[in-house]
Specification:
By secondary structure, this protein is an alpha+beta fold. The chain is 32% helix and 21% strand. It folds into 3 domains: 136 residues, DNA methylase specificity domains (Adenine-n6-DNA-methyltransferase TaqI, Chain A, domain 2, Alpha-Beta Complex), CATH 3.90.220.20; 87 residues, Orthogonal Bundle (Helix Hairpins), CATH 1.10.287; 138 residues, Adenine-n6-DNA-methyltransferase TaqI, Chain A, domain 2.
Length: 383
């Protein structure tokens, strides 16, 4: 693909893109709509895979199919998505439209993933704990606009990479579906595990019997000696281990501490179903319940399986309290009961899940390679 970069014109973002701030405060007009929060948008992935069915929202923005959704809070997380349905979204999300015929709509989201774009966004966001981008700043972002025909070629190139990624994600989705099915059968003592799970070899325990809440905190995360920070946005629904983290260098308020092997439960917005094991020491959000397994009774990885059953999440959501962002308390979580086999049987069952995790790891590596290729080409072409 030959690009005539000498023909590219320097333009401002705001001259080609506008943001729609169509708000609605009357919940009756949008009952049972799909509600998208910043947490529902996956970094670097344009497809919206999760949302919340809102019955009675209080304040939100409206978006339409085809618009580009951009998370303006903590914009460094690269939360860009292409809406493939009409819905409502958090006030922390902009719904963007192309307003100039010289900018190709399908080219815009790739421009917004380039390093140049995010270098500018990071430099122009205000705030420390939760940096926030304002429209006047974003509208002044300058970039080199390719010829319209070249925009279409560039978009087609990246769409082919997206297609390859979707194929890998399809295989990953099927394996995760199998894993989820097996996880749910743990709670129901189903025969898929043979004689490993029976009423005769299981004993009832509460979560409070199996783990303790870890109260450890740091008042100064920057001087804690720990460089990793796990925020709520670093959890992924259904993932058994924490895959992402950010830095503690900009944290200024008191935070919780966790150690390798601890089980982390995101207590805010339990409907997002986020509970994972950390495989490293870290500072973590105050909205995380840090749990340490009693390893004389339960293996930490078995505990996280139990905490990812549908029945557990139904229990957690039924015990969430609050208005805008409902939270679950440890004292309520600790009352959940489960039938548990001994440690030897737990280890045998984990062996089945370990094989699934190994295959999923290979697929994640393939997906990661494709993502790196996409980002490399983005930066080569768009800077």
């Amino acid at each position: 693909m030959k690009l005539r970069k000498d023909k590219w014109e320097k333009v401002k973002f705001g001259d080609f893109v506008n943001h729609i701030e169509k708000t609605e405060t009357n919940p009756e007009k949008r009952q049972n709509a799909r509600y998208v929060s910043v947490e529902h948008i996956e970094s670097g992935n344009f497809k919206i895979k999760n949302w919340f069915e809102v019955e009675m929202p209080t304040f939100f923005r409206i978006f339409h199919k085809g618009q580009i959704l951009f998370g303006k809070r903590r914009a460094y997380q690269k939360k860009v998505a292409i809406a493939d349905f009409d819905g409502i979204c958090s006030p922390h999300i902009w719904a963007l439209n192309v307003k100039n015929a010289n900018l190709y709509q399908d080219f815009l989201p790739y421009l917004m993933l380039s390093d140049n774009f995010y270098s500018y966004v990071n430099a122009n966001s205000a705030g420390t704990m939760s940096p926030y981008l304002k429209w006047p700043q974003l509208s002044n972002f300058e970039f080199s606009l390719p010829l319209l025909s070249e925009q279409k070629q560039i978009a087609a190139l990246f769409q082919s990479i997206e297609t390859a990624m979707e194929q890998v994600e399809g295989q990953e989705k099927n394996l995760k579906s199998l894993r989820k099915s097996l996880i749910n059968k743990l709670k129901r003592l189903k025969p898929e595990f043979g004689n490993l799970l029976t009423k005769a070899n299981c004993k009832a325990f509460s979560i409070g019997d199996l783990a303790v809440e870890v109260p450890d905190r740091t008042d100064n995360p920057q001087k804690s000696g720990i460089d990793k920070f796990i925020g709520l946005e670093d959890f992924e629904t259904g993932e058994l281990t924490i895959q992402k983290f950010s830095s503690t260098e900009k944290l200024v308020s008191s935070m919780k501490l966790c150690k390798e092997g601890d089980v982390l439960f995101a207590r805010r917005n339990a409907y997002l179903k986020r509970a994972s094991i950390t495989e490293f020491d870290a500072v973590c959000s105050g909205d995380v319940i840090v749990m340490r397994a009693n390893q004389q009774i339960i293996l930490p990885k078995f505990l996280i399986l139990i905490m990812n059953t549908d029945e557990f999440w139904e229990f957690a959501m039924s015990n969430a309290a609050g208005t805008m962002s409902k939270r679950v308390k440890w004292r309520d979580l600790a009352t959940y009961t489960v039938e548990l086999p001994d440690l030897k049987i737990q280890a045998k069952i984990l062996g089945i899940f370990n094989q699934l995790e190994l295959t999923l790891s290979h697929l994640k590596h393939q997906k990661s390679t494709l993502k790196q290729l996409k980002q490399h080409l983005l930066n080569e072409i768009l800077g």
